[in-house]
Amino acid sequence: MPQDMPPEGGYEPVQYKRNLPARGFRPSVYLVGIAGLMTYGFYKVGQGIREQKWVNQDYVRLDQILT
Question: Which domain holds residue 67?
């Protein structure tokens, strides 16, 4: 019984490295997104503070008129 021999020219190289795609976005995309969200949040907080000042001024004026 003859022994099996490797094919002419040898076997193909074995792929042992994992070829996985990168997950998620680049860090710069996350940084820009977070900066945009924070800017919008600070804008909304400023709007709320400005509105509270107007409401408080209205109450002060109303209090001055009533007393």
Answer: 25-67
How far does Cα 58 stand from its chain's mean position? 40
Do the domain assignments include residue 3?
Answer: no
DSSP E strand stretches across the chain:
none
d(CA 5, CA 7): 6
- What's the pTM? 0.57
Do the domain assignments include residue 61? yes
pLDDT tens-digit map of 31-57: 999 999 999 999 999 999 999 998 888
Assess if residue 7 is contained within a domain. Answer: no
Rg, Å, the chain Cα set: 35
